[in-house]
Specification:
There is one protein chain. This protein is an all-alpha fold. The chain has seven helices and no strands. The two termini are 21 Å apart. Helices cover 74% and strands 0% of the residues. It comes from Flagellimonas halotolerans. This is tRNA-(Ms[2]io[6]A)-hydroxylase.
């Protein structure tokens, strides 16, 4: 369904279980960055009324998710740690060349966002099925559904604002590139890397 070329190794959950505090902090910042991405799309492309409407709703939803993750951290007696660099996103964002038209830039931003949401959805599914912590298992099962909706929304907008055939070719190439990234980064105790 998600089109990912390399699934997450199920043993990644073992790494997560040894680092719950770290993964929850990383996850909280992922939600905050997703809200920031939605806001940056509004600022960058205010003339796209349908996109602005959807991104406004998405920013609210992602900050709601941030709050939910933060509540989990506090409930366990921890505090939100400092933000860390997201190597996965940094490397992913190197795929498309810089420059080009505003429309091309928009399509690339939408494809990056779609892929990040797809990987999040896949990892949330894995956590919901494999993590021993029942509270977190249920939490990630619920989040998985909204992440799948986000992935399809971003892909839909990319196809709307770009040429469908060209967008689909870029999407396939980005998926292949991401699979190579995951070979190196996919074993870390972070949400994506």
């Amino acid at each position: 369904m998600l089109g990912l070329k390399l699934p997450t190794d199920p043993r990644w959950v073992n790494i997560v279980e040894k680092n719950i505090e770290e993964i929850l902090t990383d996850h909280a910042y992922c939600e905050q960055k997703a809200a920031s991405t939605a806001i940056s799309l509004i600022i960058g492309f205010p003339e796209k009324s349908e996109l602005v409407k959807e991104m406004t709703a998405l920013a609210r939803e992602e900050m709601g998710h941030f709050n939910m993750v933060h509540d989990k951290i506090v409930k366990r007696g921890w505090v939100l740690g400092r933000e860390r660099k997201d190597e996965y996103v940094i490397e992913l964002m190197k795929f498309f060349p810089k420059g080009g038209s505003r429309e091309t830039h928009l399509v690339h931003k939408l494809l990056y966002a779609a892929l990040i949401e797809a990987r999040s959805c896949e990892r949330f599914r894995l956590l919901s099925e494999e993590i021993a912590d029942e509270e977190l298992s249920e939490f990630y099962r619920n989040l998985m559904v909204s992440e799948a909706n986000h992935y399809t929304m971003f892909l839909k907008f990319a196809r709307k604002y770009g040429k469908k055939g060209e967008v689909d070719q870029k999407w396939e190439a980005l998926l292949e590139y991401e699979a190579q990234l995951m070979k190196d980064l996919g074993k870390k105790g972070t949400m994506h890397g």
